[in-house]
Amino acid sequence: GNQPSSTLLIDELNPRTLGMLIALYEHKVFVQSVIWRINPFDQWGVEKGKAIANQILPILAGQSMDTTDLDGSTIGLLQQLMDKHHG
């Protein structure tokens, strides 16, 4: 409630409409970065995301089950993915 939002309605998700959606979000990030005078491609969160991805990749590949450093939300999402993948 009382938060800015955008609602996008498309008739069909296909490569063209998906590309349009990605381009819209990329443009939004660029415009915000100009307004806020920041470099959106040089943020600490990117490096954090890479570190988390490097920890998650072996779990998804079935090479490791070490989730000790992951939060409950990430563990839950991983479990959902594993359950769906392994049927």
Order of helices and strands: HHH
* Number of separate domains: 2
Uncertain ranges: none
Coarse structural class: mainly alpha
Distance between the termini: 37 Å
Q: What's the main sheet like?
A: none
What share of the residues does DSSP label as strand, in percent?
A: under 5%
Compute the number of helices: 3
Mean pLDDT: 88
Radius of gyration based on Cα positions: 18 Å
Outline: extended
Number of strands: 0
Q: Helical percent range?
A: 55-70%
Q: Could you give a quick summary of the protein structure above?
A:
The protein has two domains: 10-42; 44-86, no CATH class.
3D architecture notes:
The chain is mainly α and 87 residues long. The chain has 2 domains: 33 residues; 43 residues, no CATH class. 62% of the residues lie in helices and 0% in strands. The longest helix is centred in the first third of the chain and has 22 residues. The termini are far apart. The model has no long low-confidence stretch (mean pLDDT 88).
